[in-house]
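Appendix B: complex inputs.
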Amino acid sequence: MAFHWAAIPRFIPQLLAGAQLTLLITLVAMLIGIVIGVAMAAGRVSRFRLLRMLAGLYVEFVRNTPALLQIFILFFGMPSLGLRMSATTAGSIALGLNAGAYLAEIFRAGLAGVPPGSREAAVALAFNRLQTLVYITAPLAMRAAWPAFCNLFISILLASSLLSAISVYELTGITNDISTKTFLTFEVYSVAALFYVVLNVGVSLLLALAGRLLFPPQSR
Amino acid sequence: MNFSLVWEARWLILDSFVVTLYLSASAVVGGTVVGMIVALLRQFGLRPLNLLLRAYVELFRGTPLLMQLFFIYFGLPLVNVSVDRFWAAFIALTCFTSAYVAEVFRSGIEAIPRGQSEAATALGMGFFHRFFWIIAPQALRVSLPPLIGVYVSVIKDTSLATVVGYNELTRRAMELMLRFGHPLEFFITVALLYFAICYPISKLSERLERKLTPSAR
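Resulting structure:
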């Protein structure tokens, strides 16, 4: 078979627009995810049994069902409860809800990793509960959770491709569209895969940089 | 909420549940075998080979599974390899999973103290003897919990085969919804079925992890 690479540059602007939407969806989903993740992590270590149970149920249900199905539930299922959203909105929220469950576990593990000595030191210095959390526990937990947070960020970036299944024209959606219209399947998918790799590497580098700034390596 | 339609369609749903299990099992076996081979080949320490294998792992971990699936389903026929829906899903899932499995094994192998390998060399063992009798069994033990975690992802990821029209559980829910309406009922039922297999396996992975690393508690 013959390849027609020369036809590809024409579609670059469309692919770039798709990549932009992919990034936007990822960012929105991660923001929603952080809010839910913090709430659920707090719920899971709460003093109230009911809160612990509800948060646990949420986390386990989301983590043990396919993300695609969660997107379908929000996009196709919510209108029957009277909640109608555009595909992009529904998809971003679904991804955010998904990220929230994983982030809850990441934050919880981060909290669990804070050595009890540092909390005891805060008590000895007469910090109250809020001060201990804000100045001592949270920063230490965030530092410990950062690598896992970065990994999840990349997972969500890749998972945003699932939104093409509800016809959102992000990078994968655009690629499918171009492919079915032009039959340049091989060429266009290769270029899109390259786009994903670039997005991936770019986001990873930015996150690594942010990590260095937020959590400078400690001198011992 | 009206689940009577779901009950009427129960055999259709169960039928595709079996299809999902079949695809999951195939992909787990395929992904593990290929992933083990990749991890083994990386042990030889040949530079060009390592570069190639790293590119393989990074490529399949760095691009969305959905895109790989489309690429294989629509792309392979162009080079005169005909793939049906099962094979497209199987090949894509196998490649994707093998990249993760290879990484799990690699970190498992790296977790084994160097002294083990050095002691085996001192006893006059060759590469194969050393790898298969000393390193691999210990690495396998360390790798087991994350490996099972990967398998849970595989079960969930089989849902992506929907997009190429393979009639697994998610696809069946979609078709039932398009025919009878009631999207929430069908999707939630199917979600519970996924949960029913994934949850126990996740718990098993967590339990093994606690058992194998007593220091973490």
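Residues 10-42 of chain B form the longest helix (33 residues).
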